[in-house]
Amino acid sequence: MAASSETPNRASSRSAARLAAVQALYQMDMTGIDLTDVVAEFEAHRLGQEVEGDQYCAAEAKFFRDLTEGVVREQRQLDPMIDQQLAEGWRLNRVDSILRAVLRSGAFELFMREDVPARVVITEYVDIAHAFFGEDEPKVVNGILDRLAHKARAGEFARSGAGNG
Which of 97, 83, 78, 105 is nearest to 32 (CA)? Predict the structure, then answer.
């Protein structure tokens, strides 16, 4: 695999942006807060700030905004693709809210942010799932995003050999 051109600081600021985007999407889902308001709140009070004794990592604000706004903008296109990957009889609206936010954000990156390698997207969102859940949900995230990645970016996987195992 080729070395990443991202520096460690940029990579960690993008990881923080992904986590913040998932949290913002979750907050919107749970409270009904408007996209503009949640983005403004996170940029002013959370990204790189201390909140209730926890120091939030500096996040790449532009990347955070792109993820959050992009998921909301593309949700009607993304949700059916995610639905098709869920176990038979399950629908995305039945999935835990934070898991739904992880899957939507990961799917958005896979389909709309081709500048980020698919394997990076999968790894990042599996790590986020581990921050919130035990064993099962990160496996679900891995499986669903892997299948979506193979559909969205088959060429990336063909170039590097069989599978990503």
Answer: 97
Report pLDDT digits (tens) over 20-31.
899 999 988 888
**Residue entry with tokens 């995610």:** 82
- Residue identified by tokens 């985007």 is 21
Q: CA–CA distance from 5 to each of 29, 60, 65, 164 (Å)?
A: 34, 16, 22, 20
- In contact, 122 and 150? CB cutoff 8 Å: no
User: What mean pLDDT do residues 134-142 have?
Assistant: 92
Please tell me the distance from the alpha carbon of residue 102 to that of residue 107, in angstroms, as a whole number: 8
End-to-end alpha carbon distance in the chain: 13
Which tokens hold the place of 155? 């060429």
Q: Which one, of 42, 43, 46, lies nearest residue 57 by Cα?
A: 46
Exposed, middle or buried, 27 (CB in 10 Å: 0-12/13-18/19+)?
middle
Identify whether the C-beta of residue 60 lies closer than 8 Å to the C-beta of residue 14.
yes
Alpha helices per DSSP H over 53-135:
61-83, 97-112, 118-132
Q: Residue type for 20, please?
A: A
